[in-house]
Design goal:
alpha/beta, single chain, 44% helix, Spore Coat Polysaccharide Biosynthesis Protein SpsA, Chain A
Length: 298
């Protein structure tokens, strides 16, 4: 049985569209377990989810914490593969089944999967569109499982990520927990991710990304140092992060010179976000979420 865990903090405005999409294309033999974990909600998230019927189970916890919600979801989930889905994205039941299929074959070596991204940019300002024109072409973005709002794992894959500490970039940490051979982007599954609408919305999201990436790298550095001090060999992959390199950008520009104006916008966003993220990184403020409300507008 595939279990879907959806952590949700004050997502009454969007949780219904995700659940409707998951339920709309069910097949007779589909026994998928759908679990919405409302964490610290002060709106009607739980009521909206419960109104979708008996196939959706709702668990409520008082703490507004995604990490706590994921752990509570694991405590209540019934089976594997296990699919973790952000409440503000949209994926179909067929998409979930496509993600689960490679994980059900114990001989494939695949421990984690994620869907292809569908990012509708028509309602965004031109600088946001320019930024994503570059971002979506980056090798790490194309190949990694992060930034998709959906990660599926097998039972063995779950064991790999279950011990991860609370991290802002939980999807990045999960992606980096697997080698390229152990993870797969399933093109036959697609997730709709609502992007930030305006430049300030984008910068807030990129500040969060810069801070959370620094936290992941700091955690990995401490973990590697601890393993070396104990004389242990690391069991995970060797890559430290999914940062963009200048070589990646130069190669992209050589292939597509027309991207130069978009690349300028991309670099401006990156520099601005990193500058604004310095204080949070310096003070170890890894708890301020900077939630993007524009992506939750209809």
């Amino acid at each position: 049985m595939t279990s879907i865990v959806i952590p949700a903090h004050n997502e009454a405005a969007v949780i219904g569209r995700l659940l409707d999409s998951l339920l709309a294309d069910s097949v007779p033999e589909d026994d998928t377990d759908i679990l919405v974990v409302c964490n610290g909600c002060t709106d009607e998230t739980a009521q909206v989810a419960a109104a979708r019927g008996p196939r959706v189970r709702v668990v409520e916890i008082p703490v507004p914490s995604k990490h706590a919600a994921l752990r509570a979801g694991d405590d209540h989930a019934r089976g594997f593969p296990r699919v973790y889905v952000d409440a503000d994205v949209v994926i179909t039941g067929a998409g979930v089944r496509a993600l689960a299929e490679p994980l059900e074959d114990g001989t494939s070596g695949i421990l984690a999967t994620a869907p292809a991204r569908n990012i509708p940019l028509a309602a965004c300002t031109w600088r946001v569109r320019a930024y994503y024109r570059v971002w979506q072409r980056l090798p790490a973005v194309r190949e990694g499982l992060f930034g998709r709002g959906v990660v599926a794992v097998s039972k063995a894959g779950h064991a790999r990520i279950a011990a991860l500490p609370p991290l802002m970039a939980d999807d990045l940490a999960a992606s980096l927990a697997f080698t390229p051979e152990e993870r797969r982007v399933v093109d036959s599954a697609s997730v709709v991710i609502q992007p930030p609408r305006t430049w300030p919305d984008l910068i807030r999201r990129r500040i969060r990304a810069a801070v959370s990436t620094a936290q992941v790298e700091q955690n990995q550095g401490e973990q590697n140092q601890g393993e070396r001090s104990r004389g242990e060999r690391s069991q995970g992959p060797k890559e430290a992060s999914a940062r963009t390199s200048s070589a990646d950008l130069k190669a992209m520009l050589r292939r597509e010179p027309r991207l130069l104006p978009s690349l300028v916008v991309f670099l401006a966003a990156a520099v601005t976000a990193r500058r604004k993220a310095r204080k949070a990184i310096r003070t170890q403020d890894f708890g301020t979420w900077l939630r993007d409300e524009s992506s939750r507008q209809n």
